[in-house]
Amino acid sequence: MTLTTNDTGNPQEILSAQEQQWVDKFMDETTLFLGPDPEIMRNHQIHARTAYEDECISKGISPLEMDRIRKRLAGSLDEAFEMCESMGAAPGAKWADLSVAVYTAEGDVTYLSNRGVIAFSAVLHHPIRYIMKNWKDEPTVGIHPGDGFFHNDSRYGMVHNTDQSMLVPVMRDGQIIAWVGATIHEGENGACEPGGMPSGSETPFDDGLRASPIKIVERGHLRRDLLTFLQHSTRDPKLMLADIKVKMGAVRRVIESVDRIIEEVGQESFVAALRVTVENVEVEVRRRIKELPDGTVTFNQFMDSTLKENILIKFACKITVKGDRLIVDLTGTGPEILNRAINSPLGSTKAFMTQAILSYWWPDLPRSTGALSPIEVISEEHSWADAGYDAPVGQSLQGSFRGFSALQTAYAKLQFSTPKKYSNVIAPWFNQINDFLWGGTTQHGEQVGNLCADLNGMGGGAKAFRDGEDAVAPLFCAMADIAEQEVMEEEVPFLQLVSKRLVRDNQGFGKYRGGMGYEMIVASRGTPNWGFMTVTSGSKFSSITGMFGGYGCPTYPLSIVKGINIYDIIRKDPSQFDLSIERIMNEQPYEGGSYQSAHMGLQFDVAKEGELYMISQGSGGGYGDVLERDPEMVATDLQLDRISAQVATDLYAVVWNPETFVVDVQGTKDARAEARKRRIARGTPFREFIKDFVTEEPPADLLYYGSWGQDNDEEVFATHWGGQEPQRVKGKLSEIPLVMIPDRRVLKIEAQDKRIRELEAKYGETVLHKS
Amino acid sequence: MKRISVDIGGTFSDCFFVWDDIYVESKALTTHHNLALGFNEALDLACDRAGVSRQQALKEVDSVRYATTLGTNALIEGVGPRVGVLVTHGFEDTIHLSRGRGYGEGLDPLKQGDMADAQRPEPLVPRHLVRSVKERIDSIGTVLVPLMYEDVRQQVRELVDNGAEAIVVALTNATENADHEERILEIILEEYPAHELGAIPVLLSSQVSGRKGEYIRAMSTVVDAFLHQTMFHALNQLSSNLRESGYDKPMLVIHNSGGMAQPNSTDALQTIHSGPIAGVGGAQHLSETTGLGNVVSMDMGGTSFDIGLVPEGGIKHYDFQPTIGRWMVSAPMIHLNTLGAGGGSIASYDRIHGAIKIGPESAGSDPGPACYDRGGLRPTVTDADLVLGYLDPENYANGYIPLNKKRAAYAIEEAFSDELDLEAIQVAKIIKRTVDEEMAIGIEKELRTRGGLVEDYTMLAYGGNGPLHACGIASRAGISKILFPPFASVFSALGAGNMKPLHIHERSAYIVLYDALERSLYNDYDAINNYIEELEQKGAEDLVRQGYDRDSVKYRLEMDMRYGNQLVTTAVAFDINRVKGTGAVLHLIKTFSDIFGDRYGEGTQAPEAGVRVQTVRVASYIDGDVVQFESLDSSGTRRIEPVAVAERTIHFTDEEDPVNTPIYDTMSLKSHYVINGPALVTTESTTYLVEPGWRLEPTPQGAVWLLKDPTNTTDVTTKLQFQGA
């Protein structure tokens, strides 16, 4: 060892090679535990070709032979998908909320099932690399033929913790040559609230089961000790047991196919086909990026809630195309909030970028992670879209879905002027899971916690040539299913008294309107113990925008009527069975009811029999100027009560006969001409607009997080509760203090205490508090 | 036995005629304006061949059976009445929203995955013809909100005023309590009596399906209502025609459940796909009567490839929520997997992988493949088959369609020459290999998903393109035995001739056979037996109504079962009809476990999570006479090779160089001959491609085996001298 001084003049040791080796060995042997590895978790590029892959490819397999292998794999994956869908106990499995894929030995997705959630498979290279790095040569773990690894912690690479995976190596002569993985959205995971997606989690420990990759299947045998631990850790042990078996079965089925393929074409051809597929997709993506015009598209999004309190937090995104490079820059995104559930690990955010690319940009591409690999993502750790290890992530979809929306929306702009289009130009898809999560004791006496399939009816974005599809598949899964209510009512103790009804004005207006969302009204029945949750944002600030002049989706509050039993009411007077959110909340028809509305971050709320919980599924964004909408389409929407007369008049400037719904063509022409004149009259030169509109900082009373303005992304704003009063801070993400928001109830008590003190001072009384 | 069975397809009306020991096949063009004309023409041809008059035949046959694609066509063309629907308050948009996934039903995976292009089909029920009534029933049939009669009248009037020509009543949980639906029917009949003008047909969802699921049951009823008129008129037309020709028994209509019934016991929905499904029924019959064992049927036509499964012991695979056209419905239908590939599938370059992809686009029949010379410019599978020398340009489709080989080669070169440095013939080989591979993967997936092993199955091939591709598909799938069945060109009609009178009734049920929390077995035997008895009663009534003797009715009990909280169930058929004790309950659980293990792999069963029955189903049927086939011997001992009539240069996918291949004609299809591949056998209706390593063995009644040789037997075969040599 020698001593020197560093830049600050302090002495610094220089270790010899031997000493360094000792230190490394010591550090290695005394590691507390193996957490998520930043080297693995921040990298989404495909792995460099291994020497073995290179050797296999050099043997010269033909493209046609590789195509055969791919097709056989694709068939096998679809078969495994169907198995999971058929056998899965999780509601999500039935609704296609799952995925099965084949990976290279280093974890790159080569191919995944035609149906299912792309993002589920697109994130599993992280745990595979973790296993390869840490467990492969670890004497207490190791990897053997027939082993299977389970994990669910999104910090190790998972969309969110409610999903669970099974990863199984394909081995030949002791060497891992591929992996097969299956993931299902299981729902219940033992979190602080039932259903697996707790909006109320305030620490990672509230997020429920957080399994790093563990070997649950040992040489083909399911380990009962670990299985028991997992079952014991959640509210639904039946679900845990059944679906681990389902995933094992599905993966085994794929491995049988892989074995046959290898027997037929040889191990080297198989390995070469896996690798070349990934590379081919990457090459094709670069080629397609090059077809896009150079330039930068900015798309900033704002979330209006922590799911507990109203805030405004920014998801900043600039997408730049330069030749065959595409750079997604998330700089300026608000900081992680260390005691709120909305944070998303970067891996999850990127997984949904892959979802956008493979479902909405280039749906014809083979489903491989090669699709995201050429895309550069700039992001700083500890933003809410790139959460650190200590942040709760129970509702990480809030961050990661915005990663999807950023790419989906930006692409409409990027591809607008390209002659070759691989998909339609569309407005944003709705991006919230406006849905009820539920839990408690069923009418059959079982403890359960999960969610409704109704989240799968997101409104589709308007196309450039027609309206968006009403309540169609969710952004994350083609052909997902919103299920049958009759079947659900047999299983769980609540009824949808309004089940998916489209209601007027719930749409993103435009030349072509967004696909509408539906209204749902539920009430529990026949259970001693039940409750609901909702877990989304967008009650005050629309969660998606319109496109090229179209409107964004409306805002969606949660409405509740407490203190009534609707079943008694409608049984006694059937005419009262006339339910809609609009009528109930405006007319408040049920005597004695407490009518409440709130944002959609409802923590688990105990629902007594017959109390009403009411929400709306969201609309897709509108496309184009409302004044260009075909008046006949406006009249049709009017006739079907899809829009109100006010919207038809004020927004669309259409004149019609209210008896016959016949459009007054000339009257409409005149009304639109007037509307355009009013627009011009309201218009202001851009510089003047900027002068009046743009401020240096967000309004003082707004709990704002993230950069402010377009060109200041290096600095972010936040509110810090370090002292007595909240304090706004500004600076680089790495420099601002940790952000934690005080408990609402504590703040409320503090405010009440303060008021009491004021009143005591004013009236000279002393309030005695009994503890 | 004397019997007539007809399959009226989109192009041809096929007839299979049994006159004691004479079996005759015939075909005529389908006459869409009046189906009876084509029917008569095919029948006359068959009668001529059998040497009897139409009148005599119709007077003496035991039955006339009829399978049709009429309903399918009406659905595709959107031809039907304006259907109005009454639903439960709060469920007004259920049909329109089609479970979210309705945009993609009936489309290929690529289109399903293209979210930016998602678009639902034109609805069968326009939204303004959906009305709700204030009523609600819960999942066990309890009335939560009683029906308000005046409210019902008001909604019905609005529907009629808005132009509804048929009314569907589809109330939530009507399977558990149909009282409200039935009251509404009474109200409609009061308002619009059947004897008055303005009367409209009314269909109740509870009568169409006993299965839970408000969308699928409503949609099934809507499809039924939509097709009702078309089917009623068409069946009437055919019935009248038969009566005029002297047939005095009820006509029998083939159902997609694998059975058949008289028109008065037939829902329109049950006739959809009945033609192709009759083909699978034919496969079952052939398997049962000839000891074929496990059979996978393959019908490769111009635009699609149908795969059906008949494991030994009979058809076990049903779809209970099949997709018809673009609509998911609730009906027990024999499982048939249709892949979108056939002779008309277009081949294109896959730039990403440097490969060739087939479909999903198809040239269809208009303009058809490039070689049809009808304006098609893009190369298809048929173009590749022609370029490779498999098809005779002068004698394709019995000479009806002349083929232009140069056009086919040009189309292939145009499509691929910029991308692939290959001759048209080499590209054509890739096309053939690729399409065969994809079909093989489809078969393999189909079998494995349902618990079959490819090597245990015989492929039964029929349909226009089957004989050309069967060897290629079977080789790639790992199947070594292919049978082109007797009367292959009218095989669906033959299948129709062997269907049984059968009705399937089912009802949702909440039965916990094993309660995992209580660790107890089901013991309410009366309850489960009452369910079964109720369903048997319904089936028997259906059959008795058609004149069958109640004592001859047989029953098969089936249940849809699941472990724990699985949402999708597995259909299980039982060998008992009553549950009389713990032993019977354990027998149900064991049977379920066996089937589950076969299908998904041993060890995937999870009885620890509980065992539940979700649906109870009873198939009620009558056994009857069936067509008897002659031996399908393929002992491998034949040694006589017939005389070839010509020789042609043909390109095989796995052979580098072209092969001078002997061509045989119909005369060579005698049951003591063997034809070793490579060879081509052309008949009036088809061309068999016998690839190298395969041999062809004809059997009586026109059936043909293609068998994969473990070793080439050519050397030991007695070759009759080639005429041209």
TrEMBL record, chain A:
GO CC, any one term: cytosol
Hydantoinase B/oxoprolinase domain location: 69-625
GO terms, molecular function: 5-oxoprolinase (ATP-hydrolyzing) activity
Biological processes, Gene Ontology terms: glutathione metabolic process
Domain of life: Bacteria
PANTHER family in alphabetical order: 5-OXOPROLINASE RELATED, HYPOTHETICAL 5-OXOPROLINASE (EUROFUNG)-RELATED
Protein name according to UniProt: Hydantoinase B/oxoprolinase
Species assigned in the record: Paeniglutamicibacter gangotriensis Lz1y
TrEMBL record, chain B:
Signal peptide region: none
Domain of life: Bacteria
Hydantoinase A/oxoprolinase domain: residues covered: 217-497
Gene Ontology terms, MF aspect: 5-oxoprolinase (ATP-hydrolyzing) activity
An individual GO BP term: glutathione metabolic process
CC per GO annotation: cytosol
InterPro entries membership: ACX-like_C (IPR049517), Hydant_A_N (IPR008040), Hydantoinase_A (IPR002821), Oxoprolinase-like (IPR045079)
Annotated ranges, domain Hydantoinase/oxoprolinase N-terminal: 3-191
Acetophenone carboxylase-like C-terminal domain segment(s): 525-695
Name used for this protein in its record: Hydantoin utilization protein A
